[in-house]
Amino acid sequence: MIKVGIVGGTGYTGVELLRLLAQHPEVSVEAITSRSEAGKNVTAMYPNLRGYYDRLAFTAPDAKQLGDMDAVFFATPHGVAHALAGELLECGTRVIDLSADFRLRDVAEWEAWYGQTHGAPALLEEAVYGLPEVNREAIKRARLIAVPGCYPTAVQLGFLPLLKAGMIDPGQLIADCKTGVTGAGRGAKVGSLLAEASESLKAYAAGGHRHLPEIRQGLVAAHNGEINLTFIPHLTPMIRGIHATLYGQLIAEPEADLQTLFEHCYADEPFVDVMPPGSHPETRSVKGNNTCRLAVHRPEGSNTVVVLSVIDNLVKGASGQAVQNLNLMFGRDETLGLAAPALMP
Ligand SMILES: NC(=O)C1=CN([C@@H]2O[C@H](COP(=O)(O)OP(=O)(O)OC[C@H]3O[C@@H](n4cnc5c(N)ncnc54)[C@H](OP(=O)(O)O)[C@@H]3O)[C@@H](O)[C@H]2O)C=CC1
Ligand SMILES: CC(=O)N[C@@H](CCC(=O)OP(=O)(O)O)C(=O)O
């Protein structure tokens, strides 16, 4: 059994880790932290987990206890993993961080977007960006994983086949993205109230969102050169889900067609589903599931290519992808614990 701990167990990504790991045949969750709920039984807070974690209780974060684990997930706000990751790695514990602490290679860029001093620049060199469709071999050898953000997962998986094949103009990329309210976390915020978020739709951070440099970093690597991306996120009245509508301008004709290009690119990927021509993937088709569903369109045969990409922000956008990384790091079948189909409706 792989012994794991979760720091930040009361948040949405923490409880989603618990739900997924309950179905994992080779993982035992032995530590789960919360400062505010320390002492409380996990099932007292999350009755859906009764029968799975009946003896597990929240404790305050303790480096010694966490250092006894084979792996520790950080499902915490930005900056928390910086403070503890180094100590855990010294104990031989592998670290899988769901926050953005180790996602950006450039310290100054991270500090500018996250508004705080980077707490562990010395660890950046060895941190691996945990997008298996791009970095599978490096993930297998990694001790420290930066799990990609939710929007960055949906946007990169949609654009990568086109950029890698040199099919679209890297200077004219547009990502028009929608998310559900769990993306904002479980903490109380006016914007997440039912009366504020339901029956309404709004863009936010149009002037610049912190996921822009993360997406750019991945797309620059895929293209092997500069790119220009306009990324506009929107808040929608859904609980879970990300829908990305991606626009590119074709500069070359694919050898076969765009559909074949996508199908070949993701033929061996267990968690990317290229849907049949003419499809319009919906967020509910991935609810609770680790799949990214994609469809590629060329409206009226023009030079504009439109990719539709959907994920569950809490699964492929966070906790599911984190479990996929754990499986790879420990030499297990990548799909363990992640096989259940989506909930529909
Ligand atoms: N929600 C989403 O869709 C996604 C979230 N993420 C990222 O995952 C991380 C967690 O997100 P989410 O679950 O939504 O967050 P929540 O706000 O829902 O939960 C945060 C958790 O962290 C704990 N925590 C807060 N501060 C500290 C601290 N200083 N030290 C230790 N524990 C702390 C909290 O418990 P307590 O305060 O009791 O200790 C709580 O359990 C964030 O970095 C987020 O950006 C990534 C992808 C998608
Ligand atoms: C609705 C909402 O606020 N969504 C969050 C994105 C989700 C998230 O938590 O971002 P990470 O994947 O980087 O952790 C936001 O826009 O900041």
From TrEMBL:
Entry protein name: N-acetyl-gamma-glutamyl-phosphate reductase
Record field: catalytic activity = N-acetyl-L-glutamate 5-semialdehyde + phosphate + NADP(+) = N-acetyl-L-glutamyl 5-phosphate + NADPH + H(+)
Broad enzyme group: oxidoreductase
Alphabetical list of InterPro entries matching this protein: AGPR, AGPR_AS, AGPR_dimerisation_dom, AGPR_type-1, NAD(P)-bd_dom_sf, Semialdehyde_DH_NAD-bd
Question: Which purpose does this protein serve, as stated in its record?
Answer: Catalyzes the NADPH-dependent reduction of N-acetyl-5-glutamyl phosphate to yield N-acetyl-L-glutamate 5-semialdehyde.
Location in the cell: Cytoplasm
Q: By which gene is this protein encoded?
A: argC
Is Amino-acid biosynthesis found in the keyword set? yes
Domain (Semialdehyde dehydrogenase NAD-binding): give its ranges. 3-142
Pathway membership of this protein?
Amino-acid biosynthesis; L-arginine biosynthesis; N(2)-acetyl-L-ornithine from L-glutamate: step 3/4
Q: What species is given as this protein's source?
A: Halomonas cibimaris
Q: EC?
A: 1.2.1.38
SMART domains the UniProt entry points to: Semialdhyde_dh
The record's active-site residues are 150
Q: Which UniProt keywords apply?
A: Amino-acid biosynthesis, Arginine biosynthesis, Cytoplasm, NADP, Oxidoreductase
The text of the family note is: Belongs to the NAGSA dehydrogenase family. Type 1 subfamily.
